[in-house]
Amino acid sequence: KMAELLELGDNCREGTSGASALADSCLSDNRLNLDVYPDGCQQFLKLFEGQQGEVVQVEFLRLSSNDHLLGTTLDILPHLKLLKSLVLKGGHARDEFGSCQHGSLTSLPPDMGNLRYLTHLDLSFNSLSTLPRCILHLPSLRVLLVSHNSLVALPEDFGSLNKLTFFSAMKNQLKDLPQSIGELSVLQDLDLSENALEFLPDEVGNLHNCTELDLSGNHLSSIPESLGNLKSVRRLHLHSNLLVMVPASLASLPNLSRLDLRNNCLRAVPQEIQSLPFVHLRGNPLGQTDPSLQADESSARGLRRLFLASGEDSFTVTSEGCKVVLACGIHFYFPPGAASDPLQIYFRTLAPDPQWVKLRHHDVLLSRVLELQPHGVKFEQEVQIWMPYASPQSLHQREVVVRTFSGESWSDLRTRVKQKRKSKKHVAHCSVLHFSWFLVVSRLVQNECKVPAEGTLLFSSVDPNIKVTFPPGVTKEPRSVKLQVLPVSAQEMEEITADEGCRASPLLCLSQDSLLDFLKPVKIQLPLPPGVTGLNLDRSRLHLLHGDLEGQTWDDITSQVVLEFTHLYAVFEVTHFSW
């Protein structure tokens, strides 16, 4: 079948006769899938020119938005009046690092709003910063996907899409939602994960037919009580936010079968929710003292403020608390009660000593070392620190964290970053109960989970195609597992191997907090190298390498594991972790 498709692709380049052959093959059922061709838009334009009568009958169309002729092709789409499904996705091309490239789509022709039969529209992996207005005029639209774009807001009248049953806007930059979202009365599946949402409108509670709601990976510190009105919801995903409380009404949702609250800031949870057999609470500071993590200017009003000049190296903290600004730009906030008795704080900034500051693989140092004394002092309330840092050239697939030294080892703190509006300086913010040494680093994005005895799944947020499966019985005691991914470009591989044809999947680093191997094999799924599929795979050229973190060597373990292949992935099992 693949040979036939390739032959058709060659024929299509020969002119009208090729267009006729492609049309006869692909238009028999009113479907035209051209996103599998690197020049799909060119083929579409030739088809439209040579077989216009048949092309305008197409009901299902797929094109790649990585195609350089996309703009010309878009002007023709409003003529396809019978379209029911349109896919204009990016991600079909890869950059020099092997990452999927977003498509060039930034808008749609206004006349697209006249496609009265269109029920399915997929614009994922593109460059949309605003939702094209014509989408709101599609009267039959039921499924809309705009994930992996750059949307910062949805139109105020987004609720006019009153037939929408599925909406995915994951991996955008949405900061809030319009109140009209509550008018999507038949919406069943809403995915707003991996955005920048800080608040939810009460109207979200009007989505009475919603069965799955994914709000994970946002900046939510609270959720409205109205979520307790989602009587149809079965799965509610709220993990990886900043939640400090959740309403008890969630426990009364009659159809709820999964409530994911992992990796938030919950210090207390209503008993009704804690007793649910399907609630997930790992990664929360349950039972710990509230450190007032989100103290800001308003909560610090009336506190003593200290502005230290260059050359000063100490200040005094009392039980009343204070705010301190150092000449180098470092800020501290000591809440009332942090120190029970007057305490003299000494500080200095140091150049990093490579014999002492041990960076991990692919870490980048972004600041000097801040030393705070007395070491080991235990505060009654968490002290907040803001550290300026040098802006990295790119944060793509990386994240900024504050790292602290305990006297024996370095560990990373939960960190927030922001850019000051006036000075444009970048600042890393963390909260601590102790004083020692601190610095700011850029590291590969780290995904983490607790592996229980019943097993779990861990995905990479950098490349969701990378998956680690922990089967039931894999461990007796829960253990923490961390995952990092490093894409490798074809150019880098050529420099390393001196082989122009050498390609590699992203590098995967797995680590755990236990010295014991797992009790059962852990299954790992990696994407095949760029340009390699299960159809053209030469197994004699494919090697699975295992990296030694300490010795910094790579061993070929291809013959030591059972490698399985699908069209896109390699799957294998291990019992211990490394690269």
TrEMBL record:
**Residue numbers annotated as active site:** 434, 436, 576, 578
Positions of the ZU5 domain: 311-444, 445-579
Question: InterPro entries, per this entry?
Answer: Leu-rich_rpt, Leu-rich_rpt_typical-subtyp, LRR_dom_sf, LRR_domain-containing, Peptidase_S68_pidd, ZU5_dom
Report what the protein is called: PIDD1 protein
Name the site position(s) for Cleavage: 435-436, 577-578
Pfam families listed in its UniProt record: LRR_8, Peptidase_S68, ZU5
One cellular component term (GO) for this entry is: cytoplasm
> Biological process GO annotation list?
apoptotic process; DNA damage response
